[in-house]
Amino acid sequence: MSENLTLVQAVRDGLHDGMAEDDDVLVMGEDVGQNGGVFRATEGLYEEFGDDRVIDTPLAESGIIGSAVGMAAYGLKPVPEIQFSGFMYPGFDQVVSHMSRLRTRSRGRFTLPMVLRAPMGGGIRAPEHHSESKEAFYAHEAGLKVAMPSTPYDAKGMLIASIRDPDPVVFLEPKKIYRAFREDVPDDPYEVELGDAAVRTEGEDVSVFTWGAMTQPTVEAAENLDRIDVEVVDLRSLSPIDFDTIIESFKKTGRAAIVHEAPNTGGLGAEITATIQEEALLYQEAPVERITGFDVPFPLAALEDYYLPEPARIAAGIEEAFDF
Amino acid sequence: MTETIHRAPDDTYRVLDENGELVDGAEVPDLTDDELVEMYRYMKLARRFDERAVSLQRQGRIGTYPPLSGQEGAQIASAMALADDDWIVPSYREHGASLVRGLPLKDTLLYWMGDERGNAIPAEENIFTVAVPIASQIPHATGMGWASQLKDESDTAFMCYFGDGATSEGDFHEGLNFAGVYDTPNVFFCNNNQWAISVPREQQTATDTLAQKAAAYGFEGVQVDGMDPLAVYQVAHDAIEKAKDPDEDEMRPTLIEAVQYRFGAHTTADDPSVYREESEVEAWKDKDPIPRLETFLVETDRLDDAAIESIEADIEDAVADAIEAAEETPRPDPASMFENVYAEMPQRLEQQLEYFQSIRDEYGDEALLED
């Protein structure tokens, strides 16, 4: 049995199933209880599981993440929500100083089976600080896994995999596509393995690596390019990254473009490019193109479309890689 | 030592009761009749602006907007208590306080239309840039006050606004603690509107009041009826005086908890009917600061129907003019997102700007915009 769900509904479904199968799983954060989450990602969970397992916390990100670390170390499996990834930073110390490295620091005595969820990214005309893409911060941090689904099916499967994972996962949800389209999502719990990329469109000429809300415009750009046979790979998992799939695709095409909405400098595009150089240099026929956000603070809504890569800019980058 | 500031944190200061009558023994602040009417006019203007802004958002003419209705008394009266050289350090809901301090309503609209130019406070106005991340402006206000002291200024106060939810953040604690340690000329003005989106004040902290938290930092914390503009004015005024010129045994900073209510949603993206009862909203509307002040002014012959009518007509025009000016402002130049990132644009950013302009030239702006 399955249901036709949006991405945010699939997140909600994943949380539900994760809680239903394991009493240790709980959800906590600002407005996740009676309000059902500002994006409705926790709708109905408060009514079903009660206020011991769906917890409205005070407005304090360090408190939320830090106490989730304590709960996880003491045997629960918390799934804290930070309302927007742009508000993570009061709790960032907890993420990078403790959540990522408690296993290491305690030599395995204390482990953190927790999932830190946050909506991220631009494209919904949100106010200041609500639109950034900072996935590279988390992928840069050893000890964390980082997931960013781009489809409802993956959202549920990756969330369940994350909840069951023995290590802490930062689960970033591209809110631009929370309700962009629906997909059949199985009713029963299932896993989409973390660390496993998905080839969305097969092709022979140029490999394009992307993730999150950029997947759809990249597929669209690929479809518009009649003269180029494009392969689109949706990484889905940003730590660990599925470099096997990336290298295999690149060896086939010898040309690559990377699309991400995060700023160019220090973005994950650089990591992918460097790995291609290390592992497949002799296959390379063109410079790797990066089509990304600019190295400026994310602009307010009136200019956000100009900041975000969209099909025309993506297509231009793919053509550069092809025509070199 | 004033009794408005030196009182138990739960001894809420009041001047007007809910019917606009003077509370027994209360004194009207030392304001001229014109200033009192001005206070009323600003509150009405803020309310009308708010109603229109919510409606503009519903029509898709501005983006997400945080309403302030119910909170005019606290915002307007506290801002009016400041001297010209004083500063406000606002959160994102202080359209009323900013209006008093000289920010054109057009700029407030531009900001919520997603135009960066709405964030460019006119150079002559002592208003700090809006802070969206909760409580993050509190240490800034402390730092500004601290800097003022280090520069040997003695006549400037720094009024920082934040909400009840902000008192749970580390930045609240750290900002107020620094203010206590360095005895900075700050007034920390907490707009306790009872709800941090869906989380009620009772779930935000286990203390009876927010005002009492000041004790932990070594200075006074007082509650004031935040829907009583005259009480707010007096407490804010006395706290500002204390910030600039404390008695020998007084600390400069004060925490003011202005007890009030947000009549509307947290923002236009929020639906409060999911988490609170309409009867609660109605009960608080009985304390609405605008009719309270109006009744007081009419009863004391400072205001009459003709004046009210004329104020209302002026306000309608002022709001309409602001909307027209904002909507007639040409859209920002897309290349402006590369401006003001650094004093001098680094070479790499220059290259990105060149590439951006070449893409615009080649494909046209239409191709870069979402459908």
Automatic annotation (TrEMBL), chain A:
Q: Where are the transmembrane segments?
A: none
Q: Give the matching InterPro entries.
A: THDP-binding, Transketo_C/PFOR_II, Transketolase-like_Pyr-bd, Transketolase_C
The family database entries (SUPFAM superfamilies) matched by this protein are listed as: Thiamin diphosphate-binding fold (THDP-binding), TK C-terminal domain-like
User: In its keyword annotation, does this UniProt entry include tRNA-binding?
Assistant: no
Q: What class of enzyme is it?
A: oxidoreductase
UniProt cofactor(s): thiamine diphosphate
Question: What are the UniProt keywords, alphabetically?
Answer: Oxidoreductase, Pyruvate, Thiamine pyrophosphate
One of the protein's GO biological processes: sulfur compound biosynthetic process
Instruction: List, in alphabetical order, the Gene Ontology terms for molecular function in this entry.
Output: pyruvate dehydrogenase (acetyl-transferring) activity
UniProt keyword Cytoplasm present: no
Pfam families assigned to the protein according to its UniProt record, in alphabetical order: Transket_pyr, Transketolase_C
Residue stretches making up the Transketolase-like pyrimidine-binding domain: 5-180
Q: According to the UniProt entry, what is the EC number of this protein?
A: 1.2.4.1
Instruction: Identify the SMART domains for this entry.
Output: Transket_pyr
| Stored PANTHER family | PYRUVATE DEHYDROGENASE E1 COMPONENT BETA SUBUNIT, PYRUVATE DEHYDROGENASE E1 COMPONENT SUBUNIT BETA
State what protein this is by name: Pyruvate dehydrogenase E1 component beta subunit
| UniProt source species | Halobacterium salinarum (Halobacterium halobium)
From TrEMBL, chain B:
Q: Which GO terms describe its molecular function?
A: pyruvate dehydrogenase (acetyl-transferring) activity
Broadest EC class assigned to this enzyme:
oxidoreductase
Q: This protein's superkingdom? A: Archaea
Q: Which SUPFAM superfamilies match?
A: Thiamin diphosphate-binding fold (THDP-binding)
- Annotated membrane-spanning segments are none
Report if keyword Oxidoreductase is assigned.
Answer: yes
Q: Extract the Pfam families matched here.
A: E1_dh
Tell me which InterPro entries the record gives: Alpha-ketoacid_DH_E1_comp, DH_E1, PdhA/BkdA, THDP-binding
Q: Which UniProt keywords apply?
A: Oxidoreductase, Pyruvate
Which Enzyme Commission numbers does its entry carry?
1.2.4.1
Q: Which CDD domains match?
A: TPP_E1_PDC_ADC_BCADC
GO biological-process terms attached to the record: branched-chain amino acid catabolic process; sulfur compound biosynthetic process
Q: Where is the Dehydrogenase E1 component domain?
A: 41-334
Output the Gene3D superfamilies linked to this UniProt entry: 3.40.50.970
PANTHER family assigned: 2-OXOISOVALERATE DEHYDROGENASE SUBUNIT ALPHA, MITOCHONDRIAL (PTHR43380)
Q: What is this protein called?
A: Pyruvate dehydrogenase E1 component alpha subunit
